Amino acid sequence: MAPVVSGFSKLSKADKIKWLAEHHFGNDATATDTLVTYWNSNEQLQQLHDEFTENTISNYYLPFSVAPNFLINDKRYTLPMTIEESSVVAAASKAAKFWQRRGGFKAEVLSTIKVGQVHFSYHGNPEKLLLFFSKIKSKLMSSASHITKNMEKRGGGVKEIELRDKTAEIENYYQLHCTFETADAMGANFINSCLEQFAKTFVAEAQEYDNFSDSEKKIEIIMSILSNYVPECLVTASVSCFVNELPSTSELSANEYAKKFVRAVNIAEIEPYRAVTHNKGIMNGVDAVVLATGNDFRAIEAGAHAYASRNGKYRSLTHAEIKNDVFSFSIEIPLALGTVGGLTNLHPLVKLALELLGKPNAKKLMEITAVAGLAQNFAAINSLITTGIQQGHMKMHLMNILNQFEATENEKEQLIKYFKTNTVTHSEVVTQIEKLRAS
Ligand SMILES: CC(C)(COP(=O)([O-])OP(=O)([O-])OC[C@H]1O[C@@H](n2cnc3c(N)ncnc32)[C@H](O)[C@@H]1OP(=O)([O-])[O-])[C@@H](O)C(=O)NCCC(=O)NCCSC(=O)C[C@@](C)(O)CC(=O)[O-]
Ligand SMILES: NC(=O)C1=CN([C@@H]2O[C@H](COP(=O)(O)OP(=O)(O)OC[C@H]3O[C@@H](n4cnc5c(N)ncnc54)[C@H](O)[C@@H]3O)[C@@H](O)[C@H]2O)C=CC1
C-alpha cells in the first residue's frame, strides 16, 4: 500500500512521477516510460494541457474523429466526434448519409433558460420572510450588476428570482430559485458568481431588517450553486420520410420496418431497463460531440438522464410514429452547451472542432448535438431490429481485438479478409489467430 503523502500537489511533475514509480510500480521503468511517451514534444502545448487540471502527469488520448454528410436545417455539416467506443462514428455517419437523401434533420432550440439556487435555513415566520424577500428582490438583482452587466449586453443575465418554501420536505429549508440566460456560455461560473452575490446580499439585508426577530435575522446559507437540471434549456431534432423510403429487405418490408422501429421506441418509452440502454446509445452521439467541442459532458449526462425521468419514470428521450404513411422520429433533450468559456477557446482541437462546424453559437451547437444523438439512436435501432447490434459493432471492434493480441500486419490482413464473410465474436477471433499462428 502506498504511504500517505503530504504536499504531493507541490511536487514537480518529474517528482510526482518518481513518487508514483516508487510507491505504485516498484520502480519499474515501464510505467514512467508509458507516461512520458504520451507527453507532447511541443513544450508550450504540453504546458497548456498540464494546466487544464491538477496533478497532471501525462496526456490521455481519445480519438478525434469526424462524421460527414449531416444535413441539418438545410446546411451540411461534418461533425467532430471524440469517443473511445468503436462503431459509434460509423453509425452516426451511416445515419447521416441515409437521412441526407431524405431531407436531412430539422432542429430547433425551444428555450435556453438555466437555473441556480441559493439553499438556506430560516427559523421564523414564513410570511415575514416572503415580505422581506419582496422588499429586497430588486436590491438582490442590482447587487450582482457588476457581474451581469456584460452578460446583459449580450442579451443574457438574471431572468427571475423566486423564494421557494421547502419546509414541507426539510424543516426550515428555503431556496432562492433563480433563472438565467447565459448567451453563448454554458454559464456555470457566471451563475455561481451571481448566486454567491445574492446569498451575501440576502444575509446582509436580513441582518438590517427591523421586522425580523434576532433569530429570524440569522439566515444560514447552506450553499449557492447552479443546477445541472435544465428542463428549460431544451432542443428538439427530427427526421421524417414516407414509409416506403425506409430500408427494406426480402424479409422485412419498409412498412414492417417502420412498425418494428416504432415498437422498439415504444418499448423504451415504457420499460426503464430498455430505456437506459436506448438513451445510452443517444448519449454515444451527444457525448462525442460534447467532448470534441470542449463542453462539460458530466453536466450534459446528469441533465439528460434527469429529464428522461421527469415524469417519475425513466423513459426514452426519442419518440417515433407513423401517421398518414409518414414515418417521423424525434428527440427532445436538455443541452446546456457553450461555445465560449471553459476549454472552448483554449484547447487547440476544440477550437478546430468549432471551426469545422462553422463557429456555431451555443444555440446552433445545441441543435447539432441533439442531431448527433438522434442519428446515433436511429443507427442503433436500425441495427437492433434488422441484423442485431453485434454484426456491425463487432465488425468495427475487430481491429481492437486484433490489437489486443498484437496481430502483425500480415495477420490483420488475413483475418480482416476472413471476417468479411464470417461473424466476428471475440472467441472466433482468438480461434482464428491461434490457427494462423499454429500453421
Ligand atoms: C457499424 C455500422 C455503421 C456498419 O454498417 P454497414 O451497413 O455494414 O456499413 P457499410 O460498410 O455498408 O457502410 C455504410 C456507411 O456506414 C458508415 N461506415 C461504415 N463503416 C465505417 C467505418 N469503418 N468508418 C466510418 N464510417 C463507416 C459510412 O457512412 C458508410 O458509408 P460510406 O462512407 O462508405 O459512404 C452499422 O452496423 C451500425 O450503424 N451499427 C450500429 C452501431 C452502434 O450503434 N454502435 C454503438 C455501440 S453499441 C451501444 O453502445 C449502444 C446500444 C446499441 O446498445 C444502444 C441501443 O441499444 O439502443
Ligand atoms: N455544476 C457544473 O456544471 C459546474 C461546471 N463548471 C465548469 O464551468 C465551466 C463553464 O462555465 P462558464 O461560466 O460557461 O465559463 P467561463 O467561466 O469560462 O465563463 C464564460 C464567460 O465568457 C464571457 N463571454 C464572452 N463572450 C460571451 C458570449 N457571447 N456569451 C456568453 N458569455 C460570453 C462571459 O463573461 C462568461 O461569463 C465549464 O468548464 C464547467 O465544467 C464549474 C462549476 C460547476
Automatic annotation (TrEMBL):
A Gene Ontology molecular function term of the record: hydroxymethylglutaryl-CoA reductase (NADH) activity
EC number(s) from the headed UniProt entry: 1.1.1.88
Source domain of life: Bacteria
CDD domains attached to this UniProt entry: HMG-CoA_reductase_classII
Reaction catalysis annotation: (R)-mevalonate + 2 NAD(+) + CoA = (3S)-3-hydroxy-3-methylglutaryl-CoA + 2 NADH + 2 H(+)
Name of one Pfam family that matches: HMG-CoA_red
Keyword annotations: NAD, Oxidoreductase
Associated pathway: Metabolic intermediate metabolism; (R)-mevalonate degradation; (S)-3-hydroxy-3-methylglutaryl-CoA from (R)-mevalonate: step 1/1
UniProt cross-references to InterPro entries, sorted A to Z: HMG_CoA_Rdtase (IPR002202), HMG_CoA_Rdtase_bac-typ (IPR004553), HMG_CoA_Rdtase_cat_sf (IPR023074), HMG_CoA_Rdtase_CS (IPR023076), HMG_CoA_Rdtase_NAD(P)-bd_sf (IPR009023), HMG_CoA_Rdtase_sub-bd_dom_sf (IPR009029)
Family: Belongs to the HMG-CoA reductase family.
Protein name (Swiss-Prot/TrEMBL): 3-hydroxy-3-methylglutaryl coenzyme A reductase
